[in-house]
# Entry
Amino acid sequence: MGWKLLFTQWLRHHALQIAIFLAVLFHVSGALGILYSDKANWFIQNTPLNLGLMAVLLWGMQASKQRSAYLFLLLAFVTGMLVEIIGVNTGYLFGIYTYGQVLGPKILGVPLLIGINWWVTVVICGVVTKQLYHWVQQKRGASNAPLQGWQRWALIFDGAFLATLFDALMEPVAQQLGFWQWQHGIIPWYNYFCWFVVSAFLLYFYHRWQHAQSNYFAFYLLVIQSLFFLTLRLFYP
# Structure
């Protein structure tokens, strides 16, 4: 019993370091496997394992699991799936595209993992922009100042802009790896417009419902995933 208690305490104390280590391990292994291994297709086909683990780690590192956290997870998943289903089946959102088989089981042409990934992207961008805001406030000596109306909207705008930048970094690589395919292989600007609008919609509720939440893993996950896609954009044939 004593060893179990000590291990549990150690695990809690080092949770962030463990999450970062796993994220680095999986992304570095994936990048090296895709770029330099003769088993590149195996690494690509196991992308759902990587994305699923990152979602679990992000959820596990959330400071507290309040009711609002569960509500936002549900909202982000349902919204992400709905807009993607509309996009895939009508072309009215994002443009004309289809999902491949890499990302796992689908509903009406959209992998379930995509709904989870909308939650991950919005959370990490929401957390990072809010952390940046608090850092600026501390530098100005006003760390405890309450958010003004325009500041809340600035957080929403900045978070949506960051999410759109992340999508712009990811899109060409995702298409090359067979995650999804655009008509004629061309990524339309309309896709980024829709990404910004949907992200802003979700970030509005994120900041409204989860104003007290913190997640220190979010910053590291954003950096690690960005470096992963940047590396593949530079070196993938």
Q: What stands out?
A: The first strand starts at residue 97 and ends at 99. The mean pLDDT is 90.
